[in-house]
From TrEMBL:
Its cofactor is FAD. Transmembrane segments: none annotated. InterPro entries: FAD-bd_oxidored_4_C, FAD-bd_PCMH, FAD-bd_PCMH-like_sf, FAD-bd_PCMH_sub1, FAD-bd_PCMH_sub2, FAD-linked_Oxase-like_C, FAD-oxidored/transferase_4, Oxid_FAD_bind_N. It comes from the Bacteria. The keyword Oxidoreductase applies. This is FAD-linked oxidase. Belongs to the FAD-binding oxidoreductase/transferase type 4 family.
Length: 460
């Protein structure tokens, strides 16, 4: 059926279609490593009209479509495993209209996050959603997973910066949602259904993004922490007494992997089981004095045993590498990842629960922790033991998922804080969502995608 259906694609040029094996493997996957890729073709639309025609063609021929951006996802949302046709947004990568009055910019979905950040900087403005994959992730994917990152404490999630969307639904209809309005009290805001939907309701073809004023100077502190029970005490001090932008935690094992992989020098002479990184705004000398005062209080209370504060932008960037280079440093171990969250007030008890579960479940395996503690988000990376097949490794890890997600449910948390549900978390969705919620989600899916061609099998 597929070759015959392909004869109908007269709305795309030949160089907008790839079917060779190398391309199918390259564009048919994301950063997850445990799926066999079986894409049928890769299509590269260049306009919203191309996407409309693609969806109508797919609907007519009952062909499933998988959206593909920078493919930096970690939940399998952008993988093609069932012969789907991949729709890559690599060629829809223009930064279009900019309004200095509205401080907003219209972009296509294939715009790389870092390119948007650089554009905002040239306008004297700031796009604040930031994370390790900014150099390769695309904005359409960020919106489709409601990406968070390292500055959520101060600036929130991707959702908070999207003020308009154009989307193509599973019926091939182009919807213009909110049109960049700040106030729009006219019923359901459908824009927010598509943010975080992982392409299951439709494909984003344009977004209007709000930009922020340029940030003030920052100071970054790296601190050695003797135990998990001190982490939230440090956070509370910085949150209440400074203009806190980011608050991150990583374990000694995570730091060791970064130092080994990068050749960076250790940030501190003192070794500790955990470290925290805090970034604070320092508009003036008084702000910097407040930050130093908080650090000294943490030392006095023995919540911190050692620390250092950045003295230049170069040094601050180096300090951030201790945190942001963790994922890259772990990649060669094919880690099994969990990305979970609870409300900030529940973090101490939650971390204690997890510590017991992981120590008991993986007594001989290497488990690396890090997380955006300032927004209740933890990342757990289980490193595959040498000689163990990926199939056996995943099977063993999934057994412990149940215990981890039981702890998540007990604390009314989320099984996926920022990586999405995709394929990897779909069977565990009921740990976070009620059966009633899942039922309504299926109903919404049916409305926007009645033939189940938009990224089918993902999320629900």
């Amino acid at each position: 059926m597929l070759p015959q259906a392909f004869s109908e694609i007269d709305f795309l040029a030949k160089d907008q279609i790839k079917t060779d094996e190398e391309s199918l493997k390259y564009w048919g996957k994301d950063w997850t490593t445990y799926f066999d890729i079986k894409a049928s073709a890769i299509l590269f639309p260049r306009t919203a009209d191309d996407v409309v025609k693609t969806v109508k063609w797919a609907r007519k021929n009952k062909i499933a479509l998988v959206p593909s951006g920078g493919r930096t996802g970690l939940s399998g949302s952008a993988v093609a495993t069932q012969g789907e046709v991949v729709v890559s947004f690599d060629q829809m990568n223009k930064i279009k209209d900019f309004s200095p009055v509205d401080q907003s910019v219209v972009i296509e979905p294939g715009v790389v996050t870092e390119a948007l950040q650089e554009f905002a900087h040239k306008q004297g403005l700031f796009y604040p959603v930031d994370f390790a994959a900014t150099g390769s992730s695309q904005m359409g994917g960020n919106i489709s997973t409601n990406a968070g990152g390292i500055k959520v404490v101060r600036y929130g999630l991707t959702r908070d910066w999207v003020i308009g969307l154009k989307v193509v639904t599973g019926t091939g209809e182009l919807l213009e949602l909110n049109n960049g309005l700040v106030k729009n009290a006219t019923g359901y805001d459908l824009r927010h259904l598509f943010i975080g939907a992982e392409g299951t309701l439709g494909f984003i073809v344009e977004a209007t993004i709000k930009l922020a004023p340029a940030p003030p100077p920052m100071k970054v502190l790296v601190m050695a922490v003797p135990g998990l029970d001190s982490v939230m005490k440090i956070f509370a001090e910085f949150k209440t007494k400074t203009s806190l932008v980011a608050f991150e935690m990583f374990s000694d094992k995570a730091l060791a992997k970064v130092l080994e992989n990068t050749g960076l020098a250790a940030p501190l002479e003192t070794q500790s089981p955990f470290y925290v990184l805090a970034e604070v705004e320092t508009r003036n000398e008084q702000d910097e004095e407040h930050a130093l005062g908080v650090f000294e209080k943490c030392l006095e209370e023995s919540w911190v045993t050692d620390g250092v504060i950045s003295q230049s932008e170069v040094q601050a960037a180096t300090f951030w590498r201790y945190r942001e280079d963790i994922s890259e440093s772990l990649a060669k171990y094919s880690p099994y990842k969990n990305d979970i969250a609870v409300t900030i007030s529940k973090v101490p008890n939650f971390m204690a629960d997890l510590d017991k579960i992981l120590a008991s479940a993986y007594p001989t395996w290497e488990v690396v922790w890090f997380g955006h503690i300032g927004d209740g988000n933890l990342h757990i990376n289980i490193l595959r033991p040498p000689g163990m097949s990926k199939e056996e490794f995943v099977k063993e890890c999934r057994k412990v998922d149940v215990m981890v997600f039981d702890a998540v449910k007990k604390n009314q948390g989320s099984i996926s804080a920022e990586h999405g549900v995709g394929l990897t978390k779909k069977s565990f969705l009921n740990y976070t969502r009620s059966e009633a919620e899942i039922g309504f989600m299926r109903g919404i899916k049916k409305v926007f995608d009645p033939d189940n061609i938009m990224n089918p099998g993902k999320v629900i």
